[in-house]
Specification:
The complex is a heterodimer of chains A (637) and B (245).
Chain A: H1 3-19, H2 21-55, E1 58-63, H3 67-77, E2 83-86, H4 91-96, E3 101-105, E4 112-117, H5 122-136, E5 148-153, H6 157-188, H7 190-195, H8 198-202, H9 208-245, H10 255-261, H11 265-281, H12 286-309, H13 324-334, H14 340-366, H15 390-414, H16 416-438, H17 443-447, H18 454-478, H19 483-493, H20 502-533, H21 535-549, H22 553-573, H23 577-596, H24 598-602, H25 607-629
Parallel strand pairs in A: 1-2, 1-3, 4-5
Antiparallel strand pairs in A: 3-4
Helix pairs in contact in A: 2-12, 2-15, 6-9, 6-11, 6-12, 6-13, 9-11, 9-14, 10-13, 11-12, 11-14, 12-13, 15-16, 15-20, 16-20, 18-22, 18-23, 18-25, 20-21, 20-22, 20-23, 21-22, 22-23
Chain B: E1 6-15, E2 18-28, E3 32-37, H1 44-51, E4 59-64, E5 67-68, H2 72-76, E6 78-82, H3 93-103, H4 108-122, H5 137-149, E7 155-159, H6 167-182, E8 186-191, H7 194-200, E9 203-208, E10 211-216, H8 218-225, H9 230-243
Parallel strand pairs in B: 3-8, 3-9, 6-7, 7-8
Antiparallel strand pairs in B: 1-2, 1-4, 4-5, 9-10
Helix pairs in contact in B: 4-5, 8-9
Classes of the chains: A mainly alpha (637), B alpha/beta (245).
Amino acid sequence: MNLRHVLLTFGKELREALRDRRTLAIMILLPLVVYPLLSLLAAQVALGREKNRDQRPSTVAFSGSGPARDVLETRLRANQTIFLLLPQGTPAEVESGKLDSLLEIGSSQAEKVTVLFDASRDESRIAEERLGDLFAKILPDGCAPSFALQNRNLAPQARLGGYLLSKALPLFVVLMILLGAFYPAIDVTAGERERGTLETILCAPIRRVDLMLGKVLAVATLAALTGLLNLASMAVTLLQILRLTSQALVLDVPWGHALASSLVILPASLLFASAFVALGATARTFKEAQTVMLPVYFLTVAPAMAGAIGDYRLAGIAAWVPGMNLTLLARDLLVGRASLSGTLAVLLATAVFSAVALMAAARVYASERLVIPARRDPKGAAIIGRSTSAGDAMTLFALAFLLLYFVFLPLEKRHFAAGLLAAEWMGLFGLVLLYSRMSGQQFAHVVGLVRPSGRALAGSALIGCSAWAAVAILSEWLMPVPKHILEELRKSILPPSGGRGPVMTLVLMAISPAVCEETLFRGPILRGLGTRLGPMAAIVATAALFGLFHLDIYRLIPATLLGILLGYLANQSRSIVPSMLAHFCNNAVLVTLARSGLDQRMEGLSHRTLTVVVLTSLALTGAGVALVRGSVTKPEL
Amino acid sequence: MPEPLAILDGVSKFFGDVVAVAHFSLAVNRGEIYGLLGPNGAGKTTALRMLAGLLAPTSGSARIAGRDAGSDWAKKQLGYLSGSTGLFGRLTPREILDYFGQIHGLGKSDIRKRLAWLSPSLALDSILDRRAEVLSTGERQRVSIARAVLHDPPLLILDEPTAGLDILASRFLRDFVRSERDRGKAVLFSTHYLAEAELLCDRVGFLHRGRLLCEGSPAEIRAQQGASTLEAAFLSLADAQEAGP
């Protein structure tokens, strides 16, 4: 062995790899940003589930009578926050879900109490657990009760099998379909470019949408096959494992339900195939496609995981969240509780998202960018700035996230105000300042700091003062915020210890976020992503990053919605100042509402009043948008 | 006189601030091989891509048989071949030709007939059922030519088709192009090998930095510049442009 040659090759390979920004992005973004972010969001979902479970009382009832009933009833009535006691019930009501558990009192002399529950429902399992804990405390240690207590599961074996499968299988199948679509989608798009066959097909008389639909269907077929094979294999394997680990448990595979749950495979395959083909179409190489698609892969996994571990019902917004809706539908089909409306909503949502992704893919394929050499790609000219690249934007986001997560959040826990100020002015504003110095650009150019027109300022102020109501109410409708989270938010604005005046509160909660968050997000991140994605996609992507940056699943939607508006303002007005002003106004209004207690009074408003508030908010925001739209005087900065 | 089959009429193409082609016009007639010549980066590929409907001109117009070059109808009138038009490696030439034939609206029996006609002249028989990825460069180029002419288009656009080919494969391609011209096809051919153009083309146009320097038959251009070869004529023209007014 020639050690010198080994070391030379080692050095050369390492140098090449480290000069590839995408390799670095994967090295930094995935382990340091994506994983902590997903873990944090998953933990918040799990915590929310626990709190919901703790807060929900178990509905129980008795059947039969005897001395044991009196003893137990007294105990249950003494724990009214945990148990909701109904006078009478039947086993059928437990099976149908009307009751969580039924206490059946035996008629023999030595009284026997049987706790009837349905092991295929979480609520019933919790009720059984709570009853067990309660009854264990009836007598002191060493004393025997005057009645015999036993548990009996009412769920048929097949339904129990379905329930146990529903805990793991839906997520697993969705993940497998995602994976099944991932590489074929890259192969038919970026792979095609890399192999030099793209131009061959583009000069043929085939409509782009036909071309992309053909590709999507091919990828979807492969993904569906992956999902189907995994569903069948995992269903049998999981039940076999359960049988082996619990000899007492004799489970049946609910083949009918398992087959029904395969209904999700088709929409899931189409959705993921369309999304990945659309993303893959933007990439020039296989490697670039992986870099673009991996974060999306993980971002899709997050809602799917939330659906699997959270206490969500397949209704309302949950039926429209990609990934989550499919997991929930598969779960409901497995346990035989899928509703027609929920199923239709998921199918409709998936069809809409797939069609949008397909149209986006066709649009990408209709673009000249596909055949223009990278060095001549003029895309950068389409957005408001040119110097910051998409790679710079993502690197800045990653750095800001790392600083926030590992440095400033711990600091905020010790001293909220100091930590928050440091996070904003050092972690965001300072970061952009440093970036502009290091990249040799003027700070004003990096963030788009130019004087906007009076109309743009007026429109931004109007949007900032009005949009909060529509954003808040829409977010509440999409994902209701638990009370304890609202309380925590209020405490951060109005610390119980007091001592923070209105000016300091405004500096902390309105001025600093407006200046610093806009400097980073609507500055280099929006501009950088715009060079790759185009203005509209960059605005949405920046808003999504802005939402994620708040590190709170319940603030994800409002922050993202607000981010879209702010991004629109920055792009439309060609200046960062209007988005700063709107951000300031938005936060200042929220702070004022919280300080005056008006926000709590709003919680009790009727639907009619809320509708009026939303419509007024939308009308004013629309007027603001119209003002800003007419304010552009320069084509670009 | 019939209208030329392929026309670029005062086209310009900008990529951001970069001017790839400026105020460029050309016309290619049926039964003619037109050579678009120039060094790397002269704008040849951009000009041909505008005619093939892959790029839209920033200004001016690109037409094939009187219709917009970007239309599906126009694409059916042309066979396009360039260094970037690869083959689907995991398919066999027969499968590739079947796919493109059907996209061009040919029926299965039409494809079989055309393949039977093309196979001897392009020596395809022995390679039709092998995967494209295992074919040699010359074999792949023959399949690419078959793919480009399968639907018997009246216009052939060949962008540096001999780049990377050995001397025998290049001669084979030139012979095929001549035979197509003799069948009445219009051929637009780009190359930076000026000797090759001299052998093949009826008319040539010199493109340099996106602008047309001159146009005519090889003999006319040599005579105009007082040069013995096209290469010497081009260098003289390029030097004159570099010196500038």
